[in-house]
Amino acid sequence: MYIADLHIHSRYSRATSKDCTPEYLDLWARRKGISIVGTGDFTHPAWRQELEEKLEPAEDGLYVLKEEYRIKDETAGASAAPRFVITGEISSIYKKHDRVRKVHSVILLPGLEAAECLAGKLETIGNIHSDGRPILGLDCHDLLEIMLELNSESIYIPAHIWTPHFSLFGAFSGFDTVEECYEDLTPYIHAMETGLSSDPPMNWRLSALDGYQLVSNSDAHSPAKLGREANLLDMELSYKGLQTAIQTGEGLMGTIEFFPEEGKYHYDGHRKCHLCLSPLDAEKYSGKCPVCGRKLTIGVSHRVEQLADREEGFVLPGAKAFESLVPLPEVIAASTGHSAASRKVENQYYEMLTALGSEFSILRELPIEDIQKVSGRLTAEGIRRLREGKVERRPGYDGEYGTIRLFDQMELDGMDGQLSLFTGVEMAELSRMETAAAAMAVPNHSSEQGAKQRIEGTVDAGGDEAASNQLTSGLNPQQEAAVTAISRTINVAAGPGTGKTKTLVSHAFHLLEERGVKPTEMTAVTFTNQAAREMRERLESQLGGKRFVSRMRIGTFHSICHDILKKSGLEFTLADELEMKDTAEEIIADRELNLPVRQFLRQVSARKCGLEKETESVPAEAYEAYQRKLKEQGILDFDDLLLETLHLFEEEGKNKTLRQGFSYLLVDEFQDISPVQYRLIQEWNKGGRELFVIGDPDQAIYSFRGSDARCFEKLREDYPQITTICLEQNYRSTPQILEAASGVISQNDGPERRLIPQRQAGTPVRLVTASGEMSEDIFVAKEINRLIGGIDMLDAQGHLETGDDLRARSFSDIAVLYRTNRQAELLETCLKKEGIPYVVAGREDFLMEPAVRGTLCFFKALLNPEDRTARRLSLKLLWKLPEDEMSGSIFDAAAEKYRKKMKKEKPQKLLEAWVSDMNLQEEEGVAKLASMSVFYKNMAEFLDNLTFGQESDIKRCGDKTYTSDSVTLMTLHGSKGLEFPVVLMCGVRKGLIPLESGKQDIDEAEERRLFYVGMTRAKDELLLITSQEPSPFLKAIPEEVTTRENAGKQRDPGMGKQMSLFDFMQP
User: Which residues share a beta bridge with 523?
Assistant: First the structure.
């Protein structure tokens, strides 16, 4: 049995390897196990001359490489002597029947003399010198006629007959029938080359092809690609034997096939827009790309469907056999999780060839047991699955090769160097069982492990805790529409609990995995660092590791802008809140302004963004002095960071390198963007292919930072062709919680809100009235005790005795929300006395205390010696010294000590030593800073999160001992984007909700949105706790979904309860 690959190219064809020489074609034919290989490119004079020099005649019409040109090789098949047959491909582009036709033809010739003769004739027709595959304006009928006239033994084969652009049946420029193309010479066509994107079963669907031999070849443009497809021949080894096999089928035993999905043109699509579509989907868009409006490349599958007169699955009686294989390096890669081009795969490939023989013998014939001894179990199992056809395929389209998968990522991850004994489904079930078991286990209380386990509320995943491992599975119709949407601009209006995060991440996954968008083309802008981490982790778990996802830009506006400006070469230091506050204090003092620092900074920010009100505007000279001060120190504040990036893009609009990565721009929490951020989005995505925004106007709660809930209206005005999709199915909250929240938000203007609960009815919303703030917080502490089933043995026993049958919660199931940070102080006292572990999330006032600011500036200066402002502030705030030679020596001595420590110690240890060295034991703020540091691996990460982190990114423990399971305390602002089984909201009273400051008008609509955000964080239970005069917002909650109670008459566990200090504190 001989294996023949008859359609290849030389180094004289365009886009081919320089190794396409007789020597390397011979070498790789030996390695592959190919007996007969075409020379390709017979029309090119220089190639023919090289063939004449390096080949010598073998059997009739066949050639072999001369011994002196033979490359020595250590592989087991090196002793073989592949035969060469003279072949070439010609591209015909011409007009016929009022249409431009583009058809490629493969020609086999009985020798070099015949090649010289035909090439001489074709040279009179067109240029055959510039390309090994010449382009001629010659009708295929006429080409066939010329060939037959010059040498009747020549063989003409229409090449890759389904390729969309250049083939007999090509969707764009081919024919519908063989006769239409070749007319009266049709009887001289005896064979058809199926091409990489189709296999015999696809061709069997056309009865018009029943009389033709189906042949397959690689069309290789490099020696290593030989044999991707080939022919199995049992014949006399001669040109005559080959001619008989191809023209009559006698001796043609079958073909070796690519999986057709791997071919470059199997499905429809548009590569530039990363759009791959099935024939059915392509029909929906009338053959046009919905992203850019250009013509879709109609793939082989679609074209076959158009011309077929038989149903899919038809088997032609008496048809030749075929085998579907994948090149061995790809099998190794798919079996080990490495890249096919990696050194590891290359080494294993050569080891197998050396020990076992040729590639085809390994893939087709050798016992799996023998293969396993050399390759190991993974690759051997991959070959076994390949032989059995157990291959998952992703279709190629519009010139993009498809891909195959022999193992799913879970199997590869679970093997750890050994073959998994489980199927993919079994592995998934095992993983689920392990996760469930872990949830029941006693938590590890070590600091590092605890930090991993402790999640203060999960990022909104739509409440779908039983979601499939695949991000794109389990989507409802609206989510699926959003995930798979194809449009220049896509707006997803996603109410709370509708699966916003899942939809956003799934869309990113869809772009990367299904549409083949490169990660370097995509940017995702999230509102918090935690959301960015969540997105990155989800994509990594689905795409098989960090390496692929690391090339995608994911971050907040400020972190992305910081990175862009640094890469652009701009020298600056980013002013964090400490430095901005210090600079503002200096300006206020110098100008004798009667303005609090925060108000000054807020008005400066508003002025930069064009949002300041005349009555609140900072004097122009003060504003200019502030900016001048920053510039002198080489500092940018957060507004400057955005504005400088905006100016950079506006000034260098045509800089493709600068815009790289924004072709596909995904924006989370769109309702909270400022006008400057809106302009940045427009500038970043200018000339891009997709802008995908997701958010909820009813959750716009940051107007004090310049955000405007009307940004969705502006988006519709600026992008009239926008596609809008609404997510309405709420998976998070019970119907009672949703109805209560809907009653509140419906008081705001706007269209009717529609949130459809997907969960069963739960408990009513509890409206709890206390006599004062202390009573509220004591109630919270006791209620948490009750919810967890008691925090000690006596508590637990008390719950059992009183028959309290509510399911016990973990600490991390519970969040306590409040309007202002000040409310947390008394609450913390109550929780500490009750022994309840907690974590405070959010940017707190203690960060502005001098000792805390000085400490942070000291470590900032250590990490960045160029940050002179941080150095100056640390000297001023900690040592109360000006920056001079003497103070510099003091700083340098401390810096030398802690620079060494930073390399090996975690932030918590560093700060503990720092407190001792600097005698800061009495500074409560520094103690809080140390408790915050346990969440971070190193000081750089800690300081970076303090700089760029939003409310929910910044956390601290309630005491020095970090526990892995804690109640979360946070502001309403900080809770956005999170969800908890139980939410207790404190201070739902007049003056706090809505907040009355006395210094500015109340934005009641925004305050109502903020209250709505807090309510919709709850999944199972919502408690609204008030005292004094209740919040007017409570009036909008329907009575039928609530129950009212008094904080003094709560459901105590009973007589078994251990006494605490609270028992002596009468509310």
Answer: 553, 665
Give the separation between CA 202 and CA 204, rounded to whole angstroms.
Answer: 6
Burial of 632 (0-12, 13-18, 19+ CB in 10 A): exposed
**What pLDDT digit, counting tens, does each position of 617-662 carry?**
688 888 899 889 888 888 888 889 999 999 999 888 677 777 888 9
- Contact of 779 with 1050, CB cutoff 8 Å: yes
CA–CA gap between residue 611 and residue 629 (Å, rounded): 22
Measured distance CA(290)–CA(301) in Å, rounded: 20
The residue type found at 109 is L
Q: Which residue has the tokens 């500036």?
A: 857
Question: Is 7 in contact with 159 (CB distance < 8 Å)?
Answer: yes
Q: What is the DSSP string of 170-218?
A: -TTT--SSHHHHHGGGGGG--EEE--TT--HHHHHT-GGGTTSEEE---
What is the b/e burial string over 881-906, where b = at least 16 CB atoms within 10 angstroms of the residue's CB?
beeeeebeeebeebbeebeeebeebb
Tokens of 261: 């999905």
Which ranges of 905-938 would DSSP assign to H, the alpha helix? 907-917, 924-933
d(CA 780, CA 785): 9
* Cβ atoms 180, 97 nearer than 8 A: yes
Helix (H, G, I), strand (E, B) or coil at 103: strand
Q: Is 98 exposed, middle or buried (0-12, 13-18, 19+ CB in 10 A)?
A: exposed
Helix locations, 719-823, DSSP H: 735-745, 773-787, 793-801
Q: Is the peptide bond before 994 cis (omega within 30 degrees of 0)?
A: yes
Closest CA to 659 of 631, 633, 696, 684: 684
In a 3-state reduction of DSSP, which class is residue 317?
Answer: coil
Task: Give the three-class secondary structure for 1010.
Answer: helix
DSSP strand pairing (63-65 vs 55-57): antiparallel
Q: Token pair for residue 613?
A: 């009100």
d(CA 800, CA 374): 63
Contact (Cβ atoms closer than 8 angstroms) between residue 644 and residue 571? no
Amino acid at 797: Q
Residue 53 is inside which H or E element, if any? helix 45-54
1035: DSSP letter: G
Beta-strand pair 83-96/36-38 = parallel
End-to-end distance of the chain based on CA atoms, in angstroms? 95
Residue 757's φ and ψ, nearest 5 degrees, are -65, 135
Contact (Cβ atoms closer than 8 angstroms) between residue 590 and residue 624 = no
The pLDDT of residue 912: 87
**Other CB atoms within 10 Å distance of the CB of residue 993:** 26
Q: How many whole angstroms separate alpha carbon 1004 and alpha carbon 335?
A: 60
297 bridge partner residues? 269
Q: Which residues of the chain have pLDDT under 70?
A: 409-410, 412-473, 544, 576, 578, 610-617, 653, 790-808, 842-845, 948-964, 998-999, 1049-1067
Number of H helices, E strands in the chain: 41, 36
Calpha distance 742→546 (Å, rounded): 40
Task: Look at the alpha carbons of 67, 70, 73, 78 in this order and tell me if their dihedral is positive or negative.
Answer: negative
User: What is the C-alpha separation between 932 and 908, in angstroms, rounded?
Assistant: 8
For strands 2-5 and 230-233, give the pairing: antiparallel
Query: Tell me, what's the pLDDT at 1017?
Result: 96
Read off the amino acid at residue 1031.
Answer: S
Residues 107 and 87 sit within 8 Å (Cβ to Cβ): yes
The two three-digit tokens of residue 155, written as one number: 């063989």
Here the tokens at position 927 are 């103690």
| Residue 579 Cα distances to 848, 867, 874, 932, angstroms | 10, 11, 10, 20
pLDDT of residue 797: 40
